[in-house]
TrEMBL record:
InterPro entries: Class_I_gatase-like, GlcNAc_PI_deacetylase-related, LmbE-like_dom_sf. It comes from Sphingobacterium psychroaquaticum. This is GlcNAc-PI de-N-acetylase.
Amino acid sequence: MQSLAQTNRPMHAADIQLQMEKLNTLGSVLYFAAHPDDENTKLIAYLASERKVRTAYLSLTRGDGGQNLIGTEQGVELGLIRTQELLQARKIDRGEQYFTSAYDFGFSKTHAETFRFWNEHEVLREAVWIIRKLQPDVIITRFPPDERGGHGHHQASAMLARKAFDAAADPNAFPEQLVELQPWQAKRLIWNTANFMRMQGDSPNQLKIDIGQFNPLLGHSYGELSALSRSQHKSQGFGSAATNGQTIESFEHVAGAIAKQDLFDQIDISWTRIPGGRPVQQAIDRLVETYNPTNPAGAIPQLAQIWHLIQKLDNTYWKERKTKEVESLLLACAGMKVEALVEKPYYTQGESIPFRAEIIVRNPNTQACISYINGENIQQTLVGNSVTKFNGQLAQQTYTQPYWLAKPHTLGKFEVLPANFGFPMNPDLPAVNILLEIGGIEIPLVEPLQYKYLDPVRGDVHEYVQVRPAIAVGLDQPVLLAQKGERKKITVTFLNQATLDSQKTIEPQIEGAGWTISPAQIKLNFKADQPTLTQEFDLTNTSLQPEPSLLSFSIDGKPLKAVHEIAYTHIPTQTWFPEGMIRLQPIDIINPVKTVGYIMGAGDRVPEALRELGIQVDLIKTPDITPTLLSKYDAIVLGVRVMNIDKNIAQKMPIIDEYVKNGGVTLIQYNVNSNLAEADFASRGFTISRARVTEEDAEVRFNDPKDPALNFPNKITKKDFDHWIQERGLYFAEKIAPRYRTPLSMNDSNEAPHSGSLLIERQGKGKFVYTSLSFFRQLPAGVAGANRLFVNLLAKEQ
């Protein structure tokens, strides 16, 4: 069930020895939690390489609802980033990675709220499928099923793990799965307790083990491996320090057989668990004893013998699993390298993709043969340390859309076919099927097509080939705001990705009423040497209806897709193809704000949203802040979490404060309550808490309806808080000095009202605003009321 991204990782001589030793272990563990970065990477590394059991992490979501410290991606695009960060982490700690189709809709305070969004039955069905497929002996949860788990997703993950533990063993639960799988009863379900988030558990009844060992074959302790693994979560700012020495992990019994001494109490994880397995174990013992790291190829005859012994076994699961492990070792001992390369990074749907397979056996005295490539009979013996090349063609009828984004998703769930349950990436990427023979053993390989190029800084870079729609649309803005009668001009880019001469008739289509567009049809003549054409359109809002409309572009009635590429050096480039649409949002707004200086924080799209309102927004670098520079602007805005990540902002705050006293407006967006760059932040007359309002439709109360922020230049009403997304706000202010106005209060269900989302103070001639409202989500999404309120906060008070 492993994806292409998790197989055939390169092995050095010590790694080969570790994998040989792992052949003799027939145990498995499934770690079970809610998000990327929830997992205990130290424990995963320990289990995978010290205990040498098959170790997998099931993250129910892809982390779509989190924050992003390295860029502006949010939602599903953040989920794409965090998926790849998990895969990079697993390469280091040697676990495997799986997902369900649950969507991370943002912070949730209770499991009850979580299950209002998630389809509990469907997520449970997928968890049961993965348990039946992986057949773990032990299932470990990161969180308890109650308020100690904190996040509602955390609580829900523990509840689902408990239900899946039982349901996987029940033949009456999800019986349609039994066509392919069998019921599976894990031996035990345990909770990996922790000393954070109030999750210590009941210490006297816990199993405790030391996982702080050093692995000489890997050259790292498990604390060091854990830090390297966890530091891959760069979008979350989770760079971690290495630890060494004794590390005690605690586990509390949840269900199944109680473990008193060891995680695998009462579980046979040797070959004796399988009838007829002892000869295999004896053969592997001899293999490990005689392995010569300076001559890995010398182990090939013994590996071939072990392969034949395994084929005599009846146990389907371990037979299949250990066969793959032996085949991976055969490839590694031969020094085999196989690549399927293409000449450009993308092709178009239906286009034949020419590829070049390059195969080399690098260890001397190794007999290897290519039997077949994509069904073609080759039967060619490989010459040692010489690259053998084969050219071929591969037809790809579908584009490489991430499978969970192929259909629109709900607020709680992606629409995923059963064939894709669990996979972190598409299991059917364009690939070449190659059959090799090493030591008389035929080894099937599925080698994904890759584009390889030389980067002057990174060196050789490999990217999976993309298959794109032939014609795509490029949109500079996801949202267009316009008042009644206002006409706006947009520029749209059309891409002929097939790079062939063609003529296309493009028709804009508006779903909804109250808008007109001109021209109503265009004809584009693409040339092979000019694949990109642009066209201007005039859009006019003819009504003030509050509901948005959607603008798309089509050819022959088929809407065009857009192409979004996400590129960071720590993960492979991610490309997906959303619907090419612009959200047309009517808005009634008075905006006296002309110029804004914006100091970026962790990354957001607020500057682009403000420009959509007609405001000139200049991005200011912290070292450049001077009184003269700030005096040019009507307002200064500090981006999200700037006080957490900008080491230089504290020394510039006196200049910003002086700008306010001289008549300027400064607005600081939310920060978290740790690692504040300004040590005396509390001296401003408030502290930052972890309080938040996660219900985006929570009632908003006006503490003072006459407050200028609610009346100038736009009259703010309760309707301005309709259609907010994901949350109201986060990390609210507390212990607020009386000098601040707090015009708003709000709360989640069954909680007391909180007035810390918006603080305003007149300072000298100007105005200081601190807000924890989630403007960084609302403004880019085109939420009209949030835009109106934000302009009020930036406006100078009369």
